[in-house]
Amino acid sequence: MDYSRFLGEVMADVAATDSRFAALKRIGLRTYPIPFFGRIDTARVITVGANPSPGEFEGERWPVTADAAYVSARLLGYFESGARPHPWFDTWRDALRQLDVSYETGEAAHVDVSPRATIPMGQVSEIDLFLEMARTDVKWLFRLLSILELPRMLLLAGCVTKKRYIIRFLRESASSHGFRVLGQEQNHGPGRVGYHAFQANSRQIAAFFCSVSPSGNNAAKHMLVDRITEHASRLAKVIRNCEKISGRYRQP
Predict the structure, then answer these.
(1) How far is it, in rounded angstroms, from Cα 178 to Cα 143?
(2) What is the Cα–Cα distance from 159 to 165, expressed in whole angstroms?
(3) Average pLDDT over residues 213-225
(4) What are the φ/ψ torsions at residue 177 (nearest 5 degrees)?
(5) Cβ–Cβ under 8 Å, residues 196 and 209
(6) Mean pLDDT computed over 153-178
């Protein structure tokens, strides 16, 4: 896959539509679209979130101007030696460690529903506008899933606004992009989880959802790691053997 060309398409689409979502942006902060972080070309596990943190662009972490070739190369090498990944990834790092994979080795990468860095989701007052942005941009996530051949597991956590768990948002959006999302999460309890599968034609990628986000408070972050740890044996087996785990949630 030509990642520079892919980034060029994403950047052009975001530039053409960004004025619609100006109310969600931090005033005065220069940002670039970021559809993924890390070695998406070699990853077997992909963590999935809502959208990049505005903190990614603070403190001169990125140059004032950059083209698609620079951005794609920077994102592919995001977790390599000498890089400065955003602290938001620390919780996912702890969770991935339970599965014996990591961003740093290229076995894991991260993809967001929207590539646009906005104000933190908890500060968003225009919920419907954020959902409109997510529905506009989710095509890039599904595009990556349709192209990439190596991913065996998606790890999803948290929400796309307080109105939608991320798994429910993707389930609602999938059919418009040639996918079905199978499976069902638990419907009560803290840190509820679910086993799922993203299916397109004969292709199926296993998925695991946890309702608490790595963006939450310390208790929530620990709960996400705890849930991954509790299910680590089965999840690791899926990653190794590509076992299909669609259907209703069941205790391993």
Answers:
(1) 10
(2) 4
(3) 84
(4) -125, 20
(5) yes
(6) 94
